[in-house]
Amino acid sequence: MGFPGIADAFIAEAVACEKAVSFAIELGFHSVLIEVDSLTVIKKLNSTLADKSIISPIICDIRAKCASFEAITFSFVGRRGNEAAHVLARVGLQYSEPRYWIEVASTSVERLAQHDRSL
């Protein structure tokens, strides 16, 4: 993932989820579905227990931001079911600053997203 200074994939997934939630707030969404391919992160977000892991501050921040939505769902999607996200992440690594695709993506990514939805 493209987060400078984050070498651990577990932390990177949590940070990516946190950024997705923040981005959805900035865009003014009222209802969101966040799909993550880290089952551990999903379990921590969906748990009512206090988190005591290394990603505890990130999980707490995400949970606090959930109050900004009428509905928010965190769902696990295995790598096989989110190829479009992985392609976008690889493309994003080519840039020195974060990039966001809103409503429009390349044709190849659109095709992958359609394929992901059919799984």
TrEMBL record:
<feature type="domain" description="RNase H type-1">
    <location>
        <begin position="7"/>
        <end position="90"/>
    </location>
</feature>
<dbReference type="InterPro" id="IPR036397">
    <property type="entry name" value="RNaseH_sf"/>
</dbReference>
<protein>
    <recommendedName>
        <fullName>RNase H type-1 domain-containing protein</fullName>
    </recommendedName>
</protein>
<dbReference type="Pfam" id="PF13456">
    <property type="entry name" value="RVT_3"/>
</dbReference>
<dbReference type="InterPro" id="IPR012337">
    <property type="entry name" value="RNaseH-like_sf"/>
</dbReference>
<dbReference type="InterPro" id="IPR052929">
    <property type="entry name" value="RNase_H-like_EbsB-rel"/>
</dbReference>
<dbReference type="InterPro" id="IPR044730">
    <property type="entry name" value="RNase_H-like_dom_plant"/>
</dbReference>
<dbReference type="InterPro" id="IPR002156">
    <property type="entry name" value="RNaseH_domain"/>
</dbReference>
